[in-house]
Amino acid sequence: MGLDMYFKAKKWLWSGICNNGQDEPAKQAIAQALGNLPEDWEVQEVVCEAGYWRKANAIHQWFVDNVQNGEDECREHRVSPEQMQKLLAVVNTVLEGETPAEREALAEEHLPTESGFFFGNLEYDEWYFEKLEHTKAILEKALASPEGWEFYYQSSW
After folding, report:
1. With 64 labelled, which of 40, 83, 110, 126 sits at a CA distance of 20 to 30 A?
2. d(CA 136, CA 108)
3. What would the mean pLDDT of 152-157 be, rounded to a whole number?
4. How many CA atoms, within 13 angstroms, populate the side-chain half-sphere of residue 120?
5. What pTM value is reported for the model?
6. Smallest Cα–Cα separation from 57: which of 4, 108, 101, 105?
7. Where on the phi/psi map is residue 2: left (φ > 0), alpha (ψ -120 to 50), or beta?
8. Measured between alpha carbons, how far is residue 133 from residues 38, 93, 129 in Å?
């Protein structure tokens, strides 16, 4: 119970005529690994968990405000590379504070905590900054991912 946050990477696997069959070996390998699929079923998409947070309410509120048009409705939303870069810049700005007081002031200004139904701590403490470091790592990996992957954010509370 509480705020769970998911960051998914998705890749569409095209049919042979769309990309000269480049995705066919992956589609066949996945279908074989799954086993016993009906003959007319076709693997079309790969979904990976690229990130997960628990009660990182400031990050969640950033997604609500900047990706979900202010609507906190627990639905999946596509996150563009530009949005990921924007969040990474905000996280880096907060993490660049040299003293605890400076980091807290930057956090309050750029990435404030947000209350909600079991959304977690509202303090700018060690856990808050660990969640920012975690977010930074997730975003850097996503931004460095191979071409063809799309990213989605979804929360559950």
Report:
1. 126
2. 18
3. 95
4. 23
5. 0.89
6. 4
7. left
8. 44, 12, 6
